[in-house]
Amino acid sequence: MRMNSHIQEKEQFKKLFQKERIDRFEDRFKILDVFLKSDTHLTSDELFEIFKKEGLGFSRDFVTETLELMRFYGFAQANRFQNGSPRYEPLILDRRHDHMVCAKCRKIIEFHSKALEDLQMEIAAAHGFHMLQHKMDIYGICSQCLKERSDLIPLARARAGETATIEKFLGGRRFEARMLSMGIRRGETVRIITNRGEGQLVAAVENRRFVIGSKMAFKILARPEAGPGKQRGSA
Ligand SMILES: [Zn+2]
Ligand SMILES: [Zn+2]
């Protein structure tokens, strides 16, 4: 969300940081300037690399410290997505937003919904709860990744929270029989609970949980539940 030249932010930063007698003001101001122009939702390490490219050879510690100061004084905000490192973005006071995070390409999409905020207030109020802040992160698969994804995927490639129908086994009859003995058969709908990508996968069929090794999970082909605008069975 970078639609203005951040004149307000820069002026207030100058005023506040000088009034608070924060050291190395000029250096920190350079960091702010590049930060406001950069992509949003970057980690301290990613920003460090950007500053370096811009000729700002500050230490990692100085960069992190400055980002944290900017956060403290309300010029930056940081979010952790799926327990990752904090990702910084400018804090624009009158522009709140929430995030959608793609589990495949890690793209972060911002959105704002007045209806959603009103609903949250309403729900909080119904519990006699006074809402101060809220955080809404939606995890899923972005439209681009959905387009690139083929209809059948190995179960090993399905994401946590995803639902898919088992269509095919690649390991021959014996493998299929083995799966059957575990209660995993064609036409069954599975929901992925945990998938670390390389190792074991935990999934549920109805209310049964089962664990599949990654080798096996690559031999099970499944059709993910249709995403938006993508009807089940369409090409
Ligand atoms: Zn994506
Ligand atoms: Zn954001």
Walk me through this protein's architecture.
This protein has 235 residues and is an alpha+beta fold. It folds into three domains: 7-90, Orthogonal Bundle (Arc Repressor Mutant, subunit A); 98-146, 2-Layer Sandwich (Dna Ligase, domain 1); 150-224, Ferrous iron transport protein A (FeoA) (SH3 type barrels, Roll), CATH 2.30.30. It is 36% helix and 23% strand. The chain has eight helices and twelve strands. Strands 7-12-8-9-10-11 form a six-stranded antiparallel beta sheet. Strands 1-3-2 form a three-stranded antiparallel beta sheet. It has a three-stranded mixed beta sheet with strand order 5-4-6, with no helix packed on it. A hairpin with a 5-residue loop joins strand 4 (98-102) and strand 5 (108-111). Mean pLDDT is 89; it is low at 229-235. It binds zinc ion (2 copies). One zinc ion is lined by residues 40-41, 89, 97, 99, 110. Belongs to the Fur family. InterPro entries: Fe-transptr_FeoA-like, FeoA_core_dom, FUR, Fur_C, Transcriptional_repressor_C, WH-like_DNA-bd_sf, WH_DNA-bd_sf. One of its GO terms (biological process) is negative regulation of DNA-templated transcription. Fe cation binds at residues 98, 117, 134.
Write the layout of secondary structure elements.
Elements: H1 7-19, H2 25-37, E1 42-43, H3 44-53, H4 60-72, E2 76-79, E3 87-90, E4 98-102, E5 108-111, H5 114-126, E6 137-140, H6 143-148, E7 153-154, E8 163-169, H7 172-181, E9 189-195, E10 201-205, E11 208-212, H8 214-219, E12 220-224
Parallel strand pairs: 4-6
Antiparallel strand pairs: 1-3, 2-3, 4-5, 7-12, 8-9, 8-12, 9-10, 10-11
Helix pairs in contact: 1-2, 3-4
The structure holds zinc ion (2 copies).
Binding site for Fe cation: 98, 117, 134
Subcellular location: Cytoplasm
GO cellular component, one term: cytosol
